Amino acid sequence: MIDSHCHLADEVFAADLDSVVARAREAGLERVMVILEAGNQKEIVQAAHLARLWPETRFAIGVHPHQAHQFADDPERTASLVQEQFEATPGARAIGEIGLDYHYDFSPRDVQHAVFRAQVRVARERKRPVVIHTREADDDTLAILREEGRGDVQGVLHCFTGTPALARAGLDLGFYISLAGIITFPKAADLRETARAVPIDRLLTETDSPFLAPVPHRGKRNEPAHVARIVAALAELYQVDGGELARRTTANFHTLFRP
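Below the sequence we write its predicted structure tokens.
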């Protein structure tokens, strides 16, 4: 199994990172993809410790739309920042998480657009996949991916909770769909129905930990070991053996991120 999206460099894991990693390995995880906020020095330090602790760990580096406002004076500066940190991080494999968020609008939308575009261009130039965050901004997210990616950028729509139309559009772009703990929530019937239409060879699993713990851990801090609950839920949804679902999603991760 692989947790394709988690935030183990977050300070919430600083005190017991060793134990969190141990539980993940005991649960059968091969590796995790850890999301790093570009330029966050605390995360850089914790990521280095994590890489020593679990060498199979891989990283995605980017400026989240919530932080885009920090680059309002020069959105293109995100490109050089991400490039520099990517080159300094041996385990870096993707640009992300990046995208648009119109739910909170912590950053002005025009700034979000400029920062997002700059980072998609970095991904295209480096021939690396992107990890996409989109919330209430689907049309603009897809438009920027088409315009800046020019058909050459692959990636994943992370923690997918969107519509069937968004899933189809993402798949048409060559993207993968990643499902998190929400798939286990009792009220997520619509999401489960949408997920059924995603080909298994375009499916990824994630925790987005420390957020969105799956049932029966809901309300507690999430961690990579809990991806096993998501694998089990998806295996039931797809009516395949849990081991087969884990093998297929692991193979998908390797295809996309070339770890």
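The chain is about 40% helix and 15% strand.
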